[in-house]
Design brief:
The complex is a heterodimer of chains A (218) and B (337).
Chain A lengths: L3 H38 L9 H16 L2 H7 L1 H8 L5 H25 L3 H9 L4 H40 L1 H11 L4 H29 L3
Helix pairs in contact in A: 1-5, 1-7, 1-8, 2-5, 4-5, 5-7, 6-7, 7-8, 7-9, 8-9
Chain B lengths: L1 E10 L5 E11 L4 E6 L5 H6 L9 E6 L2 E2 L5 H8 L2 E5 L10 H11 L4 H15 L14 H13 L5 E5 L7 H18 L2 E6 L2 H7 L2 E6 L2 E7 H6 L4 H8 L8 H9 L4 E8 L7 H8 L3 E12 L2 E11 L3 H10 L3 E4 L4
Parallel strand pairs in B: 3-8, 3-9, 6-7, 7-8
Antiparallel strand pairs in B: 1-2, 1-4, 4-5, 9-10, 11-13, 11-14, 12-13
Helix pairs in contact in B: 3-4, 3-5, 4-5, 5-6
Classes of the chains: A mainly alpha (218), B alpha/beta (337).
Bound molecules: adenosine-5'-triphosphate and magnesium ion.
Chain lengths: 218, 337
């Protein structure tokens, strides 16, 4: 039905999408997690309450989340070019993807960590745990399974955004869909790209759910 | 030794709550000290002021001579490691197995892995959960969870164990087994135990001393048997009602009224004297007839105490009563009940 070249293109596009989503998810987690932790522990009644810090950080995160991805991408073009040397292509797309996912992941992390039972945290305090010990030995392990779900949601979001990034020169499945499916009226390519995206999202979500369930001992 | 001097704690907020007001309290080494009070009386606040989970607004808290309020946060953490705590809802780490939960405080103190393992094995043995070492808390019953809590609270060879409603989520039988365990570790390790509860039975079962707290004030305190026998405040009496019957039930009193002639007296006795055949001695010494109409005997720890309602008839009633009082019994004439 398709000629082999389409399969090759599809394969390349899928790998590019996986690359963009994979790398930006990792960066978003690495950079968003500490922010999420800070948001929780500095909130009122938690282990290191600091009203000012918490308010300002919360505000920054909200601003980050409210900028639409497409605008963010254009707005930081110079920064992207400075950071990775180019503003087009998959590697360049990783920069806005990561930046848009950081505040999102920070918020979902905050929610996950907030669910950790106050009593458990208090027990650790009563045992003489330091703030760092509480974060590393109590908050993160207790919230681990829900953090895996948070990463999953972040990755799923990034799959969607990566298609958008692709549409404006980032490569990947979105790029393929636009260039062939839309601009060259290849409805079949459009369709198969969408199907691959759906399968990808489903797959990521299923794996995430599975791991989270395995990790939970609640 | 744990000492409170004029400790006051106020929760500020929309409406201020004075949770503790001018509390003075001394808990000696090796004691099992009970703190009883109604909900909201300030019991939790009181124990939480010992390891400074709550900071008093006024007064002094010292533990083994260390003025807790003067410590830097680093020194406070060191002191906290010497004070174990168990909770109503256990507060175990759900992500860790039983053995890893018990090892947790040892990890915090950076105890080497090998030593940790030995210590954990020993503690599992102590609380009788060796076969559950690899289980997760969600797979345990309430009683088992509290045993893990106890093992965890003893891991650093703590000198003090604080129990905030540690048995309130458990059924009576499990409560008993947990109390027995606490008693055992008190005996074997000489650890000081502070128990908070709203159940008089818990106090009766294992405490040496008790303090009754109401509206943030200690309204009564002392040796358990004495407080149980001579409660002076209404709150203490309310708690006692369900536990020890030192009062004649109304239906019995009504029946007693019908029996005329002679004098009705109620005697309350405690501990040692009950072993002696006092009544027998009285009858043989004096010219009186004794009829035992009602009685109730209870056991608090190892001490028996109780109450008898007697009808005395005969010429030497007065002398007989004086004799009973001489023997240290509390005698109350209830002819007019
Ligand atoms: N963090 C807090 N903020 C404000 N008020 C508080 C706080 N903790 C306790 N209180 C109030 O202080 C008083 C004493 O509370 P505490 O928890 O010490 O009582 P308790 O005797 O332990 O009660 P219970 O048997 O219900 O556990 C109560 O009126 C309570 O509402
Ligand atoms: Mg309480």
């Amino acid at each position: 039905m398709f000629n082999p070249m389409i399969w090759t293109m599809l394969k390349t596009a899928l790998l590019e999408t996986l690359y963009m989503v994979g790398v930006s998810t990792v960066f978003a987690v690495v950079l968003g997690l500490p922010l999420g932790i800070l948001l929780v522990i500095t909130s009122e009644g938690h282990i290191k309450p600091n009203k000012w810090f918490n308010t300002i950080l919360g505000w920054i995160v909200n601003v980050g989340r409210s900028v639409p991805f497409i605008i963010l991408m254009v707005a930081i073009i110079n920064f992207t070019r400075w950071l990775v040397g180019t503003s087009i292509g998959t590697t360049a797309a990783i920069v806005p993807l990561t930046i848009s996912a950081i505040p999102f992941f920070a918020r979902v992390t905050e929610q996950s960590l907030r669910e950790v039972d106050k009593g458990i945290i208090e027990a650790a305090q009563a045992m003489g745990a330091t703030t760092m010990q509480i974060i590393i030995k109590v908050l993160l392990p207790e919230a681990f399974s829900s953090l895996v779900l948070a990463m999953t949601i972040t990755a799923v979001n990034l799959i969607g955004y990566s298609a958008m990034a692709g549409a404006i020169g980032g490569g990947g499945l979105g790029d393929l869909a636009i260039r062939y499916g839309y601009q060259r009226f290849r409805g079949d390519i459009m369709l198969i790209t969408v199907i691959v995206l759906v399968i990808l999202v489903q797959g990521v979500q299923t794996i995430g759910n599975f791991i989270a369930r395995r990790l939970s001992h609640k | 030794m744990i000492q409170f001097e004029n400790v006051t704690k106020v929760y500020k907020g929309e409406n201020e709550v004075v949770a503790l007001s001018d509390v003075d309290l001394t808990i000696k080494d090796g004691e099992i000290f009970g703190i009883i009070g109604l909900s909201g009386a300030g019991k939790s606040t009181l124990v939480r002021c010992i390891n400074l989970l709550e900071t008093p607004d006024k007064g002094r808290v010292s533990v083994n001579g260390v003025d807790m309020l003067s410590l830097t946060s680093r020194r406070l953490r060191e002191e906290r490691k010497k004070i174990g705590m168990i909770f109503q809802h256990f507060n175990l780490l759900s992500s860790r197995t039983v053995e890893d939960n018990i090892a947790f405080p040892l990890e915090l103190s950076k105890v080497p892995k090998k030593v940790r393992k030995e210590k954990v094995a020993e503690l599992l043995e102590l609380v009788g959960l060796t076969d559950k070492a690899r289980a997760y808390p969600s797979q345990l019953s309430g009683g088992q969870k509290q045993r893990v809590g106890i093992a965890r609270a003893l891991a650093n060879d703590q000198e003090i164990l604080l129990c905030d409603e540690a048995t309130s989520a458990l059924d009576p039988q499990t409560t008993r087994s947990i109390l027995d365990l606490l008693k055992k570790i008190n005996k074997e390790r000489g650890i000081t135990i502070v128990i908070i509860t709203h159940e008089m039975n818990v106090i009766k079962e294992i405490c040496d001393k008790v303090a009754v707290i109401e509206d943030g004030r200690i309204i009564e305190s002392g040796v358990v048997e004495e407080v149980l026998l001579n409660p002076t405040t209404d709150t203490a009496k309310t708690f006692l009602k369900g536990v020890i019957k030192t009062e004649v039930p109304p239906e019995v009193a009504a029946r007693l009224k019908l029996s005329n002639g002679g004098e009705l007296i109620q005697i309350t006795f405690l501990g040692g004297e009950t072993g002696e055949p006092i009544i027998n001695e009285m009858v043989s010494k004096f010219d009186v007839l004794v009829n035992i109409l009602y009685g109730n005997i209870d056991q608090v720890q190892d001490i028996t105490f109780g109450m008898l309602v007697l009808k005395l008839t005969g010429p030497e009633q007065k002398l007989a009563k004086a004799f009973l009082e001489d023997k240290g019994l509390k005698v109350k004439v209830i002819s007019d009940v």
